[in-house]
Write a structure and sequence with these properties.
The chain is α+β, with helices and mostly antiparallel strands and 185 residues long. The protein has 5 helices and 4 strands, in the order H-E-H-H-H-E-E-H-E.
Length: 185
């Protein structure tokens, strides 16, 4: 990368604050993958990239009252089977990520695994997504986790609410990408 300004770039004295910040934080404007030279948002062109087998795993948890976790374990939640419903929601979210994350490509999902675990005061969820394509699937795994946990919240909100209708003990936490892999096909 050169320290010389791009020949068509605006001199720093004529740039807006946003343009100046973007270039100073990440190098030349040409280095920004989701913006055009004029600053418009764009999707990254992955057309020339080779297909690869890809896998991403994301995880997170929802903190609940111990009595709520026990009710889930005993299938005593009035709305129905919490984990079965959350599993469907997580898979559905994975398949529709490209519709909710503006710059995500629509990719062929080849497999989704969901793994719930019930702990004393939380439900943990891990979502593994697999694809064969030109771009990764970590956003799909993250969407699966966050939506799956949101579905758990929706299913248990009647028993999680306090007398004022609030959720003082409920919280989605520790959402993260655990791993991502790429193998050329």
């Amino acid at each position: 990368m050169s320290d010389q300004p791009h020949p068509t770039s605006t001199p720093p004295s004529e740039q807006s604050g946003a343009e100046s910040r973007s270039e100073s934080e990440s190098g030349d404007a040409d280095d920004l993958t989701h913006t055009t030279d004029s600053g418009d948002v764009q999707m990254v062109d992955v057309g020339d990239k080779p297909d690869s087998e890809r896998r991403a795993v994301a995880a997170g948890e929802i903190r609940l009252q111990p009595s709520t976790v026990e009710a889930i374990r005993e299938d005593q939640i009035g709305k129905g089977d919490v984990l079965a419903t959350a599993r469907v929601g997580a898979i559905q979210a994975v398949k529709h990520t490209w519709e909710t994350i503006p710059m995500c490509h629509q990719i062929p999902i080849t497999n989704v695994d969901t793994d719930f675990s019930l702990e004393e005061d939380r439900v943990a969820l891990e979502v593994a997504v697999e694809t064969t394509g030109k771009t990764g699937c970590e956003m799909e795994a993250l969407e699966g986790v966050t939506t799956g946990l949101n579905v758990v919240w929706d299913m248990v909100k009647a028993v999680e609410k306090d007398a004022d209708g609030q959720y003082p003990e409920t919280g989605i936490e520790n959402v993260r990408v655990r791993s991502k892999e790429k193998r050329r096909t």
